[in-house]
Each structure stands twice: as C-alpha cells, then as structure tokens.
Recover the amino acids of this structure.
C-alpha cells in the first residue's frame, strides 16, 4: 500500500511526527496537554484546546497513531476524496474539541482534569468511518470466534485507549462520537466542504511540501531490460576450437538455401559438431590426407580435420602423432 490518492493523510502523518519531534527536542511538551485547572479555569489558556491536537508527548502513542493513520486513514481518504477528507478532519477536530471541553467541565469532579496531547480523537473518528465504510478483506476464526482483518487495527486502537486512563478512554469515546455525529444527519455536516480558496492555496503551497504520492510502478516484463551477457569460456590449451565460416547469401534464394542447409545439418549431425566447436571437413580434404597417410585410419584423419582450422594443421597433427 502507498499514499497514492491520499496526500492529506500523508501530510497529517508527517506534520504530527515533526511536531512531536520538535516538541521533544526543544522541551515544549508541557505546552501541549490540556488541563482544566489551572490552565483553563485560572490562567485562561484557551489556545490549549486546539494546540493539544498537534503532537504527542511520547513516542509510543505517536507510533501507534501513525500505524493507524497509515493503515486506516489511506482507505478513508480514497473513499472520500482529498477535499472531503480534509473537511471531515477539520469538522472532527472542532467537534472533539467542544466535546473534550464539555467533558472536562462535567467530569472534573470525578477525576477527569487532564487530557494528554495528540490527535487521538481524529484517529478514532477515522477508525469509526473505517469500521462503517470499508468491508473486511478476509475472515478467520480463533478458538471458534469469528474475526476479520480489522481486528488487528482495533487492537492497536485499544492500546491507545488504555494508555493513559481515564483520560485516554474518554478521548477515544469522544473521537468515536465525533465520527458518528459526522456520519449521521444530525447537523448535516457531511455536506460541508472547505472553501475553494483554501483548497487552491493548499494544493499550490502545501502539496509540494508533502511530496509525491504516486506508487512505485512495477514492470510487467518477465525478464529485466538489461540481460547480462554470458562470459565466454576459455578453451583448454590442448584443445583447438574452430568454427567453419558462414557463406553469405549471393541471391534472393539465400534465405531458402540457409533453411535447407540447417535442415540438412540437423539430419547429418553437423549442428551438434558445430556447437561442440568442431568443423565439418569436406570429402576432398579427407581423400587428400588419406592419400598422404595411407597407414592412418579414416576415422583418425576425420578427427584431425575436425579439430584443425585447415588441412595443413591437420597434416602437422598427424605427423606429430606418428613421431
């Protein structure tokens, strides 16, 4: 899987990771979390309501969120389209911000006074859309319990939900509720789209920063383009390998003659001898050497001619064998 047709989710992942790293390097993590007392009620730091969505304060939460955004968010953006998905992300963050503030006001008396940083509500809102829109790829059973491939992503989300109890569980429920409100016709939020000016400016200035989202193209060729040429074998010193010269065609029927010659060579076995590095001696050469060496058998004369480039070399080979 790749980020093809999913530039928004890639931008969210890169932005969240960079913001988390920068906050850790420059020791700014204490500005990221959301706390009712004293930050909201006493110091009136309402900017924390939006800033706490930007980055995570620890690497484990960041890693789990990045896994969910990649494996779940890409499918949702491809199903929605980039413009609708960006509008959905903005609406989900605004809804979850309002719900988080109400949860702090209502449940501060029972111990809910602190919410950890990170876009956890957006992750669970995307996960809710994934559970409703994307069908299961396969089913399997574990001890008789029917499960699907989605269970692995739910396990990752469950680890985020129980990481910082009770605030992490409340944030997970708020994200699911925000996704359900967006999907329902309660406020007709599904029809909202970002203004065309923002879409144009984002595609012109922010999209080049995200980089290419095209998947790597794989060739359909069975063999690579540049096939390695086999190395030539070095013949042994005591073995002379020669090939007979090919006669070029002299007329228009040369092609037919070459086909007939190949057929005759296959019948007589000359093709096998050529592939073995042996030339086919003519009958005149055999008769000439047989008259010079009458005591030598015909098979020995033919073998000497086959392994020699010409008749003079074959004669020298026969002379050296008789010494």
């Amino acid at each position: 899987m790749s980020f093809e047709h999913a530039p928004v989710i890639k931008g969210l992942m890169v932005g969240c990771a960079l913001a988390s790293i920068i906050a850790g390097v420059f020791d700014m993590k204490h500005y990221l979390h959301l706390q009712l007392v004293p930050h909201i009620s006493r110091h009136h730091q309402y900017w924390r309501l939006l800033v706490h969505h930007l980055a995570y304060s620890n690497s484990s939460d960041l890693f789990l969120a990045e896994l969910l955004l990649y494996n779940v968010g890409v499918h949702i953006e491809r199903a929605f389209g980039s413009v609708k998905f960006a509008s959905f992300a903005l609406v989900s963050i605004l809804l979850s911000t309002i719900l988080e503030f109400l949860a702090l006001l209502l449940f501060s008396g029972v111990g809910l006074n602190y919410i950890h940083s990170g876009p956890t509500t957006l992750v669970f809102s995307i996960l809710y859309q994934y559970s409703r829109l994307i069908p299961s790829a396969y089913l399997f059973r574990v001890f008789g319990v029917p499960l699907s491939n989605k269970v692995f992503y739910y396990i990752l989300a469950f680890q985020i939900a129980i990481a910082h109890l009770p605030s992490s569980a409340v944030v997970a429920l708020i994200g699911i509720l925000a996704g359900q409100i967006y999907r329902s016709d309660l406020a007709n939020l599904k029809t909202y789209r970002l203004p065309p000016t923002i879409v144009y400016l984002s595609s012109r200035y922010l999209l080049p920063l995200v980089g290419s989202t095209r998947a790597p193209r794989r060739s359909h060729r069975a063999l690579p383009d540049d096939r390695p040429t086999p190395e030539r074998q070095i013949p042994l010193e005591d073995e002379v390998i020669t090939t007979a010269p090919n006669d070029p065609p002299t007329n228009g029927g040369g092609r037919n003659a070459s086909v007939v010659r190949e057929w005759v060579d296959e019948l007589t076995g000359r093709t096998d001898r050529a592939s073995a590095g042996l030339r086919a001696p003519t009958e005149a050469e055999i008769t000439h050497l047989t008259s010079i060496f009458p005591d030598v058998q015909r098979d020995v004369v033919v073998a000497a001619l086959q392994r020699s480039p010409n008749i003079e070399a074959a004669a020298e080979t026969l002379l050296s064998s008789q010494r």
Notes: Residues 82-107 form the longest helix (26 residues).
